[in-house]
Specification:
This protein is 43% helix and 14% strand. Strands 2-10-9-8-7-3-4 form a seven-stranded mixed sheet, with helices on both faces. A four-stranded antiparallel sheet has the order 11-12-15-14. The chain has helices spanning 37-40, 43-61, 76-90, 92-104, 108-116, 125-136, 151-159, 177-187, 216-229, 294-298, 301-306, 311-322, 325-351, 377-388, 418-438; strands spanning 28-29, 119-122, 137-146, 164-168, 170-171, 174-175, 196-202, 232-236, 268-273, 285-288, 357-359, 366-370, 390-391, 393-394, 408-412. 43% of the residues are buried. Helix 2 crosses helix 12.
Length: 443
């Protein structure tokens, strides 16, 4: 019999009501990719100041247009603030700016205006990706993904049931370019309905779940393939400025799709978000799109119906940057994440069993651990919960078939304090040593 009514559960956050609630003190949840309370609590005062600043100006100077349908790509002032900040952080756009200044004598602020014209405000990277899927790709087409990838992105793709999702091998320095080319070449077709017949979705900077940083050679090769076979590359760029060692040569895949190249067509989209560096409840992100695709996103029915996808919050965040509050908050997030990552990976390097492999990332949120081939991380998770009350995410959750990756698991450093992470890592290593001992290999 069909259920005739819904149940009000009175939940307070995304993790509320789950058996492994990250706020529940009896379980140490090392799976959640979200900032913790200690990082978020200063947002209350910062956002109050930014809100007062923004609304006062709206009332005095802008006819309260923040409450009107916004421009489809977001208010110019907000996009300019985002452009200026990330131009400095990424480095590559600043260098391009210097080149433009030399050649055309324009100022830094004028260059950032041009950069801001590539931006479209979204409500976060997942919504941005959903917009890309629904607007730019032939729904009889293909989405190529890394063999292990962000599980919620996979869930989004699966909602478009006519799309075919194709996993591609992942190496220690990024996607296996030969495997990607072979699979792309076999499936390419000419779409008459949408701009692209296929998309390659990836997280090239401090990959989720593996923590891998794609090499410059792999990034260059991806762009060359996208131009050769005319598919779109969607880079989930949410961890790019969270580098804890030497800064990467380039801060995003988009910078390899150089507009001065003779064969440039506009093959890469950068899909960003403030969820990891200001707070996921803010629900604000941006798409940086080349001229080939930005008009298509700007003119889609979703944008034309509601205008800017988060006009009010975008205005508040614009003031947050203007008052230098966002910059200070992001710096605090960064320093905290770095301390947590370095401390946790040091414990794992020292205490993991010898027959386990650790991918020790230089940035981002996640640590990817490989256990012996004969074991199953899902079974070890049961043991870990029983023995140490520690939760993590088994590698199978990040694969298309739900079975590949059983010898991996992912840990996150984002939510808990350094002290909890260090203690949890030690207890997890202890549990893993015992688990291997009682489950020897028959080979």
């Amino acid at each position: 019999m069909a259920q005739k009514s819904n149940t009000e559960r009175k939940l307070k956050h995304l993790f509320d009501g789950s058996p492994y609630n990250v706020y529940e003190p009896t379980i140490l949840n090392l799976g959640v990719g979200a900032p913790g309370t200690d990082l978020l609590e200063t947002n209350c005062d910062n956002f109050r100041r930014a809100t007062d600043h923004c609304l006062q100006r709206q009332k005095q100077d802008n006819r309260s247009l923040i409450f009107q349908y916004g421009p489809t790509n977001g208010a110019y002032e907000v996009r300019e603030e985002i452009a200026k900040y990330f131009s400095e952080k990424y480095g590559d756009p600043v260098k391009r700016c210097v080149l433009f200044v030399c050649l055309t004598r324009i100022s830094l602020s004028e260059w950032c205006l041009a950069f801001s014209e590539d931006l479209i405000i979204t409500t976060g990277a997942t919504q941005g990706f959903h917009l890309i899927l629904s607007t730019l790709i032939d729904l009889q087409g293909f989405v190529f993904v890394d063999e292990f990838t962000y599980m919620i992105a996979l869930d989004c793709m699966k909602q478009f049931s006519s799309l075919t999702i194709v996993p591609v091998k992942l190496n220690d320095d990024g996607v296996d370019v030969k495997d990607l080319e072979q699979k792309v070449a076999q499936r390419r077709f000419k779409s008459t309905k949408k701009e692209f017949w296929g998309i390659y979705y990836t997280i090239p900077m401090f990959h989720n779940p593996t923590g891998i940083l794609f090499s410059t050679e792999v990034c260059s090769a991806i762009v060359k393939l996208a131009r050769k076979y005319d598919f779109l590359v969607v880079a989930d760029d949410v961890y790019n400025i969270l580098h804890y060692g030497e800064k990467p040569p380039r801060s995003r895949l988009l910078s390899y799709d150089n507009r001065s190249d003779a064969d440039f067509v506009g093959s890469v989209i950068s899909n960003g978000s403030f969820s990891k560096i200001l707070g996921p409840g803010v629900r604000l992100g941006w798409i940086e799109a080349p001229p080939r695709v930005k008009p298509l996103l700007d003119s889609c029915g979703f944008a034309n119906s509601g205008g800017c996808l988060n006009n009010y919050t975008a205005g508040i965040v614009g003031s947050l940057f203007e008052l230098k509050l966002a910059q200070a908050q992001i710096d605090h997030f960064y320093a905290t994440y770095k301390e947590r990552m370095l401390a946790t990976t040091q414990v794992l390097r020292d205490e993991l069993p010898q027959d386990c492999k650790l991918v020790s990332p230089n940035g981002g949120y996640f640590i990817w651990v490989r256990i012996p081939e004969h074991l199953d991380a899902r079974k070890f998770l049961e043991y870990s919960l029983e023995q140490e009350k520690i939760f993590f995410i088994a590698g199978t959750r990040f694969s298309l078939d739900g079975e590949s990756g059983k010898q991996y698991f992912r840990l996150s450093i984002a939510f808990h304090s350094k002290e909890k992470l260090v203690d949890g890592a030690r207890r997890l290593c202890r549990a893993l040593n015992k688990y291997i001992e009682i489950n020897p290999c028959d080979c």
